[in-house]
Amino acid sequence: MNVPENQPVNTSRQWVHFALGDLGVAEREFSYESPAYHTICFLCQSAAEKLLKGFLIYHGWSLKKTHDIVALLALCSEHDTTLAAMVDEGIVLNEYIIAGRYPEDLAYEQLGSKEAREALNAARKIRDRVLVLLEDLFN
């Protein structure tokens, strides 16, 4: 099977597209009268993960199954020190790899507006940097 030369770029664009969808849903959910904060946190983690994977794939990284934002940020260090320095955001978002998906692992009742806002801010910071770095994919 022949793989087109531009496959990594197309794949990167798809990962970013899905990430922006996750983040958009999280932002809309936050605006509702009774937001599902655990879902917002989970979607923010998912969005950041997809953004970073899209960035890494763009740079030739072979997709590996991981949900660890801190590890993904470390892999970004070869290409961008700003992303690599977002460890605090990664730590925040890593809290939600399971939360929102499996309530028995972290009582989702513990997740409130403060945690959701923190997760949104962390994911937005990663989104903003990745979109600058991958600007040519969307022009």
Largest sheet properties: none
Number of beta-strand segments = 0
How far apart the termini lie comes to 29 Å
* CATH topology assignment: Four Helix Bundle (Hemerythrin (Met), subunit A)
Report the oligomer: single chain
What's the domain count? 1
Cα shape: globular
Average pLDDT reading: 88
Output the helix-strand order: HHHHHH
Report what the structure shows.
It is a single chain. The protein is mainly alpha-helical. The protein has one domain (7-138): Up-down Bundle (Four Helix Bundle (Hemerythrin (Met), subunit A)). Helix content is 63%, strand content 0%. The protein has helices at 7-31, 37-58, 69-76, 81-84, 87-94, 113-133. Helix 1 runs antiparallel to helix 2 (37-58). The longest helix has 25 residues, at 7-31. 38% of the residues are buried. The mean pLDDT is 88.
Task: Report a brief summary of the structure.
By secondary structure, the chain is an all-alpha fold.
What key phrases describe this protein's structure?
0% strand, 139 residues, mainly alpha, Four Helix Bundle (Hemerythrin (Met), subunit A), globular, 6 helices
Topology summary:
Layout: H1 7-31, H2 37-58, H3 69-76, H4 81-84, H5 87-94, H6 113-133
Helix pairs in contact: 1-2, 1-6, 2-3, 2-6, 3-5, 5-6
